[in-house]
Amino acid sequence: MSVIIKPTEGAPNLDLLPGGDALVGVDGNAYSVMAAVSRFLKRAGASREYVDAYMAEAMSADYDHLLATSVAYLSPEWESNYTEDEDDEDEEFTFGDAMALRFG
Fold it and tell me: Does 31 score more than 50 pLDDT?
């Protein structure tokens, strides 16, 4: 099980965070995603230590974890319930599922 815990020290101005939707249109390459999130955090006033904490957490596991971490750090209201479970590999997550989560 993996839980994303964002540091509070050096956190950015929450009103300036763009939200996880800001990653739409960003190249899906892991390095591109991390660079974009780092830029968003810096623009919102995050400290160097906060950005470093994001980078360390994002690189601590697989690509899915990187994306979950990126959304968590860009979305002030996002509470992490991200877990890794090998049994979930067979389940498909469809576009309709994503829309239902996003728009209720």
Answer: yes
